[in-house]
Amino acid sequence: RVKVYCLNEDGKWDDRGTGLVSMDYLERSEELGLFVIDEDDNETLLVHRISTEDIYRKQEETIISWRDPERSTELALSFQETAGCTHVWNQIYNMQQNLHFNSVNSEPFYNGESELKELPDVEISNLPQILKIVTESGITDQMRLAELMLKDPDFFGNLMNVFEICEGSKDIDGLRMMFSIVKGIISLNNSQILEKILGDNLIMKIIGCLEYDPDVPQSQPHRKDLREHVVFKEAIPIKDPLILSKIHQTYRIGYLKDVVLDRVLDDATAANLKSVINANQASVVTLLKNDITFFQELFAMLRSPSTSVESRSNLVHFLHEFCSLSKSLQMASQLWLYRELMNAGIFDIITEVLQSPDKKLVLTGTDILLILLTPDPNLLRSYVVQPDSRLLGLLVKRMMEDFGDEHCQFLEIFRILLDSNALSTGAQRANIMDIFCEKHLPELANFITASCPGDASECASRRVGSHSGTKPKVLLDICELLCICVQQDSSRTILLLESVTKNVLFLTRRKEKPVVAAAIRFFRTLLSVHDDNVQSYVVKNNMLKPIIDVLVAGGNQDNLLISAILELLEHIRKANASVLLKYVVDTFWDQLAPFEQLTSIQALKKKYDQCLKSWGPKSTIDDMRGNERALNKEEDNYVRGNSNEEKVAAASSTQKEEAKPHKSNVAAASPASPRLRSGGLVDYEDDADDEDCKSPPENSRPEASEEGREELFRLENKTHCRENEEGHCNKKRRLCST
């Protein structure tokens, strides 16, 4: 199965359609050509005469391109399967070799002594000769063989008659020869031959021939399995006989490929059979989507209260299979189909499905949502923001239940719905976030609290019931969903901080380490938003306590959980978050001291000691922020050279007296310490290179007074020069007098 592309005058590739590729003789000619037949209407998309010139190029394992000398255009085939591309590429190469050989010897193609002029009569006595022709032909003879088989309209029918005679007489040798002949015919990999032998008239007899494998002692009951154990369920009657034929044929070809010939099928033929299956599936979807009355009946039955539970389940599974098959359509057809399904009320149907007690049926409904979301997420977004839509709430409710390995489907739906990069409008983005945060965030918060052991769950248990047995996978996905909310809309960080952070931190009481790590990751994601109010709220509510308790309880263990906590402390240090830095060391140093041998803890304490000089013993949070802003502006003026040394020295002396109650934070200007490894789990976007006391870029700091900047560099140079009393100070001439 390939797509045909042609390079237009603007240098862009035009899509000429999708079809099945084959190699055959050109009409009324003995020359070989490459054909692509449209998979929908069987029209010819491309006919190309194989050239002996070196014009073909293979790209990226699935593309063959060339410049057609007859059309003076660039053409390309994009294959669905790598094996199919390799097979066609090898055929082109072999044909070129044969063409070159025959042209050198000035002989017409296929005019040698080994020319295959005709096939022997299909009789039992001729089976050895037919077997030799089929299995021992070279690539060029195979082309001729396929042509002769197709020219004789009775060849395959006569061959199956011989099979029935052999089977009736229990001629085991004949049956085994029939197996090898049929296998060889399938291996010719000719699309027209496959279409004939896989039709309704011959397919069961072909499968019967393949029951007598010479390498297997006993025959295999493939036909019996298909007749007795395979049941075709019609959730809704399909009246078109062509659709029914395509459905049955598709199943049988799949059975042939995956069961009957699984052991002996080569990759190229398997890819060709897969292409036939894909073409049949696309045909079924196309025929069904054009039948308006069919879908009217389908949705009417789904909405009808008289429809039984079993019938409704079958209808939903049919709808799921139909949507899965629709992925083989081209994108424009997919979008048209999904819009029609939305207008017909498919989201209302999924809303009802999500309320089913059958969890398998619920997962089928979520899988349908994912299929519809992939090409155009705005279809579902426009539905969930409607005032009477219950779909979002049901997804949240179901996300708090255990669905095993398939639970991630709910998270993926929310990830696509909340993706800010793909949302069509800011208003739509705000509406979805508003609905989620206002209506469903408190529900998730209470669920998390009730899922934790200890006193934390007592109040919540009275309201929502205890969920202490909640599976870790459920809690992991909820934490990931909350992280997505922060990442997609940082303006709601305070809301999330106030609403759910305390609840999430209760998860540190769980015994499962991945759940504890997920809670820490959510808190780390919150801190990645640079907001003074976030820092103040964390300090005021002592939110780091449960995380530090986890570190202490872990002792000297070296695991991912401890690494996650150390990375969080590294972020606080590297982000120059002075409020959090003071809070961590002042509040928890007695607990952190036993870990001082770790480089992360050493660096944290060193940064704190360097900054302590500027804070003073009674510095408030506002003082620290004000001093940081002043120091940043001081640095800007120094770098720009706006003041001469004398003026700066005088201003600095004056500022020294005025700034005594509020010491400047010199941490941002102290000499850089050696780079330390953080030991963290994940590289975050807000991480910068570790330069302990180096000022961050000026655009990351608020503005302050000019005098504040001068004070910063007076203190900076004073510190540098004291450390180098006997050496030369490499900075500019000191700005302070000693």
Automatic annotation (TrEMBL):
Transmembrane segments: none annotated. It holds the Pfam family PP4R3. Residues 638-710 are annotated as: Disordered. One of its GO terms (cellular component) is protein phosphatase 4 complex. Residues 683-692 have a biased composition (Acidic residues). Residues 130-610 form the Serine/threonine-protein phosphatase 4 regulatory subunit 3-like central domain. InterPro entries: ARM-like, ARM-type_fold, EVH1_PP4R3, P4R3-like_central_dom, PH-like_dom_sf, PP4R3-like. Residues 638-648, 700-710 have a biased composition (Basic and acidic residues). GO terms for molecular function: protein phosphatase activator activity. PANTHER family: ATP SYNTHASE GAMMA-RELATED, SERINE_THREONINE-PROTEIN PHOSPHATASE 4 REGULATORY SUBUNIT 3-LIKE CENTRAL DOMAIN-CONTAINING PROTEIN. This is Uncharacterized protein.
